[in-house]
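step: validate -> pass
step: tokenize input -> pass
step: predict -> running
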Amino acid sequence: MKKMTGTVVIFAAAAALIAFSGIGGARAALTYRSENLTARVETSDIGVGLVENGTAVAVQEKGSSDGTEVTGTLLNDLSEIVPGKVYKEELSVVNAGDYPAYMRVTIKKYWKDADVQKCRNLSPDFIKLHFPENSGWVRDEEASTAEREVFYYTSLVAPDQTTDLLADQLMVDQAVATKVTQSRETEGAFTTITTAYDYNGYQVCLEAKADAIQDHSTEKAAVSVWGSKVHVDEEAGTLRLE
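step: predict -> pass
step: emit ->
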């Protein structure tokens, strides 16, 4: 894979998911899928949506019981990203169905090359998404990795209610500019040193998916749908990981 040379780290525009451009025309997408069990509440009565900076950007309305993924555009006003600069990126989930539901969000962050291929040798740690403390979301430490983070909302979400913010800020660590590769070329008495920024020309990608399950037989539903063991206090309307 050929590296570009220069003194500024430039991020190319991505074709899908969340991506940022240093050259303009940034577009991004947020995807999600809603899956649930059929019990007292039919699948068609459960809906879920993802909210970015106060606007619902992707919503699966009630009646969409096939679990099909949908996309919504994000960050249309962002034309560039500067490493080290903090950008507003407030993400939350809304209950778009008829019945209370419990919510889960899975976030993935990674890099892609100019051919839109995922780069496994580039670190997702430079992509910083800030998660506020005491927000009502709990991180599943066992299911989370450097690339993927899984969060559960600990309170039952009523119809039309929006959760607390899961994330509020996004930044690419300016330390990314310190990752360089140098090459030397000697011709006669002259030596040329070329510095290639390891992350130059790569795409920053952030993917989020939200899932909702019913408020009836929730512990069984969590195992069946999420593969997770949870404890639910039905009287208090709260959930915690086991």
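step: describe -> The first helix runs from residue 218 to 226.
step: cleanup -> pass
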